[in-house]
Amino acid sequence: MTTTQERRLEDTVLGSAAGRFYRHQNFGTGLLGGVGLGFLLWLLGEYTVNNNPNYGTDMVVTLTMLGWVIGFNLGVGTFNAVLHWILGHDQTKEDELYAAGVGQGKSRYWKYCTDHKVVGTQYLILVFVLFFIGGTLAMMIRTQLLTPNSSFLSPQTYNAIVSIHGMTMIIATIIMVSGPFANFIMPIMIGAKDMAFPRLNAMSIWVIVSAVPPLMATFFVGGVNAGWTTYAPLSVQDGPAMVCFAFTIITFVVSVTVAGINTLITVLTMRAPGMTFSRMPVFVWASVIGGALGLYAMPAFLLDMTMMVSDHATGTSFFVSAQGGSGWLWENVFWIMGHPEVYVILIPPVGALMEVFSTFSRKPMFAYKMIIGAMIGIAGLSIMVWAHHMFTTGWAPDLAGPFMLTTELISIPTGIIFLCAIGTMWRGSNWVRLPMYFGFLFIWNFIVGGVTGIYLSDVPADDYFHGNMFVTAHFHYTLLGGAMIAATAGLCYWFPKVTGRMLDEKTGRAAFWLIAIGFQVTYLAQFYEGFKGMPRRVANYDPIFAPENVVSSIGAYVLMAGWIVLLYALVSSWRSGSIAPANPWSAKSLEWQTLTPVPLENFLEDVTVVNDAYGYGERAELQVHAVFGSTSDAHHGEGH
Amino acid sequence: MSSNHNHGIHHATYQSIDEEVAPGLHKQLHRQHVRGTLYVWALLTVGGILAGLYLTPILMPHMNSPEGRAAIETVKVFTVAAAPVAALVCAVAIYSLINSRHRSHLDSPPVDGPPLRGNALASGSWLVVSTLLVVFLLFWGLTEWASQQVVHADALQVNVTGQQWLWTYSYPAQTVILPGGKTLTVPKAVDATTLDLPINVPVQFNVTSKDVTHGFWPTQLGIQGDANPGVNDVLRTTPDHLGKFQVRCSQICGLYHAYMYTQASVIPDSAFTAWIAQGDAGRVLTSAKITGGVR
Question: Are residues B218 and B283 in the same domain?
Fold first, then answer.
C-alpha cells in the first residue's frame, strides 16, 4: 500500500462521522467513568445498605468496585460495538477501521483498539507496570527482612505487601506471554490477518486494566492479611480489602477467559492455507494449550472468589466452619485453579523459548511431536495434582499416595521439554545473542526448580518443607527463574518485530548478568533458610536466620537493579534504537517474513505455508516455510 | 531486504558443507562432540552426587525423630537420583556454549547446524529412564509414608490448640503403656505453653484451632499438620533424640503470625514425669540435664 493510499484511507476513516462521542473515548474517559459510577454506587450503598451492622461496609465496597469496573469499561469504550448493535445501528466500515486504530498514531495505544498488534503492545506495557509494582513490593519485603526484628513495616503492612506482591506477580506472569506475544505475534505466525474476535481481544485488555486499581485499593482499606492464597477462614475475617481483592480476580478471570477463547478460535479457524497442525510453530501450540488450560482453571478461581464476596457481603458461610462451611472447600477450589495456573503461566513462555532455541541454534526443533505431546501431557496431568498443596492440611490423608503419584508423573513430560531443548542445541551453531543468554539461564533455573519440586512432591519431605522458605525459593525458581526468564528471552527475541527497533544488547547483557547472579544469590539463600527451618510469610524471624536473610536481601537488590537496567535498555531502544530490519535473526517463521512495522492485517500478499518453520540446514526446498502472493516461486516468497 | 543476501549460504545444507570439505569429518565431529559432552556430564554427575550426600546433612538441622531423618534421607536420595539427568542437561548446554562456533561474528547468523529432527534412541531411552526414576521416587515416597502410618497401641496424647497467636499444649490425665511394658502416667491434666516430650515414647498430637487455620510445625520432628477450626488433625511420631527446638506456625494466620512459635524439648522420661508431677518447678530442676542444641 502506498503512502498516498494510506493517507486517503485515513482521511475517509477520520472524516466520517467525526466528533461522535465514542471517538473521544480513551483511558482518561475510562478513569472518569470508573470513578464516576464507582462514586454513584458508593453513595447508593451509603444511603441504603450501610446500616447493616455485620456486612454494611463490605456491601458498600462491593457496590463501589462493581461501579468502578463497569464504569471504567463503559468509559473506555469496551461495550461500544455491542451497545450499537443492541440499539439497532451497526458500526460502519469506517467505524470499524477507526476502532482498529487507523490514522490515530500513538494515541491509539490509549484507546479501545481492535488491532491485535496494538492490543499486544498494550499488554506489554501493562506487564511492565505490573512487574514494576510487584518488584517494588518485593524490595520492601526484602528490606523488612534485612534484620530479624526490623520495624521498617508494621506486621499489618507487611502482610498486605506480601499478599499483593504475590497476586500482582501471578497476574503479571499469567499474561506476560499470553498477553503481548499470543496477541501480537501468534496471529502473524499462523498467517492470520487478526485475531478471530478483535473486539473481544480489545475487551480483554481493558477489562484486565480495570482489575488493577482494586488490587492496589486493598492497601487503603486495611490490607489483605492472608497471603495471595487467602486461605479461609482468615480471609473471611479480613476487612473490606478482601472484597477489593476478590473483585480483582473476578474481573481478571473474565479477561483471561475471553482471551483464552479468542486464542483457541483464532488458531482453529484463522490459519493460512497449508498451516496444518503439524506445521504450527511450537509457540502457537503453547499459546493454545496455555489458553485452553486457563479455560479449565480460571472459572474455579471465579467461583471461589464469588463465594468469598458472598461470605463477606451477604452473610453466607461457605468457608465458615462454625456455620457449616469449610476452609478446606476454599483450599480445594483454590488449588484446583492454582496448580493448572502454574502451567498456564509456564507453557506459553516455554513455547516462546523453544522458538529461540531453534532460531539461535540454527537447527530444526528436536522431537517436535514429543514437545507438543509433553505440553498436552503437562496440561492434562496438572488438573489432577492440586492436593499436593494440601498434604499437611489434614484433608483426605488417604489421597497422599495418589497425589504423590500424579505430581511425580508430571516430571516425565517436563523432562521431555529439557530433552527437546538440549536436542535442539546439540551440535547447533549456537548464535549467542541476548535471547540465548536468557535461554541458558532458564535451563539452569528450571533444573533447580524442578529438582527441588520433587523433594516437595514427596509427602515425608513435604512434612518438613511445607510452609517454609524452601517452598518460596522453589516456586520463585520455577516461576521467576523459569517462566519469567523464558518470557524475557521471548521479549528480547520479538522486540525488533514489536517495536521496529533493535534492542541495545550491550546494556541488555549487563542487565542479564545482574539478573542471573542476583537471582541465584537471592533464592539459594532462601533455600538455605528453608533447610534450616524458617517459616514463610513472617515479618520478623529468629536471629539464627539472620546471615542468610542479609545475603538474600542483597541478592534481591542486585536482581531488581538488573531488571531496572533491562527496563532502561528496553525503553531507550524502543525510543531511539537503530531501526530493525524485517528479519534480523534470519528466522523462518511467518512473523519475520512480513514488514516491520507490521502493516494493518499483517501481510500485503496472500500466504501459503509449504513447510514447517524449522527447516534450518535442510535441503533448499524444505527451508521454505511459506510462499507469498499467487506465485509459488520459493525465492519470491522470502522477503518483501 | 537485508536478509536476502544470506539465503545463498543458507541453502547450502549442513551435510554438504561438512562432507564435501572432508569425507568422514562428519562422523569424526560427532564422536568428538559426544566425548566432550560425556566428560562434562561425568564431572557434573559426580559433583551432584557428592553434594547430595555430603551437603544435605550440613544444610539441614539435626532431627529428633525418625520422621525428621526421613526428610533428610529423601533430599539426599532424590538429589543423587536426579543428579545424572540434571547433569546431562547442563552438560549439553555447557558443551554447546563452549563449542559455540560463532563467537566472533555476532552480527550475522551463523551457518545452519545439522537438521536433526529427532532421534528415536535418544528420545526412547530418555523416556524409559525418566519413567524408571519416577517409579523409584514414588516407591521411595510411598514406602516411607507407609512406615510413618504405623499406629502404636498406646501413645501419649497431647492436645494442641492454635489460636491467634499462640499454641496451647494440654496433656490429659492418662496412663500410657510403653512398648517395653513400662508405664508413663499423667496423674492430672496439665496445660502448658511449651511442648515437652519424653524420649522414646510414642506421641499422638490432636491438633485443632480456636479461630483461623494455623500450621503446627514442630520443626525437628519432621511432622506438620494444619490446625483447622472444628477439625481434629491427628499427627504421630516418636521422638528418639534429646534436644530443644522450636514449634513454628507454618500457615499465615494474621497480624502476628511471625510470633507464633514456642519452645519444644525432648527430655528423659524421668524429667518428664517430674515436670508433670511438680509443674514448672520440676522443669527448672530437669532442664539442666537436657543436651543437644537448637540449630
Answer: yes
Q: Is B42 within the bounds of a domain?
A: yes
pLDDT of residue B105: 62
pLDDT at A630: 65
Q: Which of A366, A422, A586 sits opposite B118 (nearest CB)?
A: A366
In-domain check, residue B145: no
pLDDT tier, B3 (very low <50, low <70, confident <90, very high otherwise): very low
- Total structural domains in chain B? 2
Q: Taking a C-beta distance cutoff of 8 angstroms, is the pair B195, B262 a contact? A: yes
Question: What's the gap between Cα B282 and its chain centre?
Answer: 37
As a whole number of angstroms, the distance between CA B143 and CA B124 comes to: 28
pLDDT of residue A344: 97
The per-residue pLDDT for range A561-574, each reduced to its tens digit, is 999 999 999 999 99
Cis bond before residue A348 (omega within 30° of 0): no
Q: What is the DSSP letter of A501?
A: B
- Residue that terminates a domain, selected from B58, B74, B99: B99
Q: Looking at the structure, do residues B161 and B276 belong to the same domain, yes or no?
A: yes
Residue ranges of A 406-425 with Cβ closer than 8 A to chain B: 408-409, 411-412, 415-416, 418-419, 421-423, 425
Q: CATH 1.20.210.10 occupies which residues in chain A?
A: 112-576
Asked if A518 and A561 count as a contact pair (C-beta separation under 8 A), the reply is yes
- pLDDT of A633 over the 70 cut: no
Note whether A368 contacts B: Cβ–Cβ < 8 A: yes
What is the H or E stretch that residue B263 is in?
strand B261-267
**Contact assignment for B248 to A638 by CB distance below 8 Å:** no
Please name the residues between 129 and 158 in chain A that touch chain B, using a CB distance below 8 Å: 155-156
What ipTM, to 2 d.p.? 0.91
What would the grid cell of residue B222 be?
519432621
Cα–Cα distance for residue pair B111/B89, rounded to 1 Å: 24
A317 to chain B, any CB pair closer than 8 A? The answer is no
Q: What is the CATH number of the domain that holds B243?
A: 2.60.40.420
Nearest chain B residue (CA) to A433: B106
CATH architecture of A112-576: Up-down Bundle (1.20)
**Nearest chain A residue (CA) to B14:** A617
Q: How confident is the model at residue A636 (pLDDT cuts 50, 70, 90)?
A: very low
Q: Give CA A626 to chain center in angstroms.
A: 30
Q: Which candidate in B58, B117, B220, B248 is best for mutational testing of the A interface (most A CBs within 10 A)?
A: B117
CB contact under 8 A, B115 and A528: no
| pLDDT averaged over every residue in chain A | 93
Query: Does any domain span residue B258?
Result: yes
Of the candidates A327, A429, A455, which has its C-beta nearest B78's C-beta?
A455
Structural domain includes residue B271? yes
Average confidence (pLDDT) over B217-235: 95
The nearest CA of chain B is from the CA of A37 a distance in Å of 33
Task: Return mean pLDDT, chain B.
Answer: 85
CA dihedral B277, B283, B287, B293 (to 10 degrees): 110
Q: Are the Cβ atoms of A231 and B252 closer than 8 angstroms?
A: yes
Q: Which domain holds residue B46?
A: 4-99
pTM of the shown model: 0.93
Question: What is the per-residue pLDDT across A310-348, written as a single tens digit (0 to 9) for each?
Answer: 999 998 999 998 889 999 999 999 999 999 999 999 999
Helix and strand counts by DSSP (H, E) for chain B: 8, 12
Of A422, A542, A640, the CB nearest to B89: A422
**pLDDT score recorded for residue A479:** 97
CB distance A526 to A472 below 8 Å = yes
Q: Do A538 and B140 touch (CB under 8 A)?
A: no
Beta strands in A75-225 (DSSP E): none
Flag whether residue A324 sits within 8 Å of chain B, measured between CB atoms.
no
Whether residues B160 and B283 share a domain: the answer is yes
Task: Calculate how close chain B gets to A100, using CA atoms only, in Å.
Answer: 28
Q: Is B169 found in the same domain as B280?
A: yes
CB contacts under 8 A, A 73-132 vs B, are: none
Please tell me the predicted confidence (pLDDT) of residue A407: 96
- A392, A399, A477, A506: which to substitute to probe chain B, counting the most B Cβ within 10 Å? A392
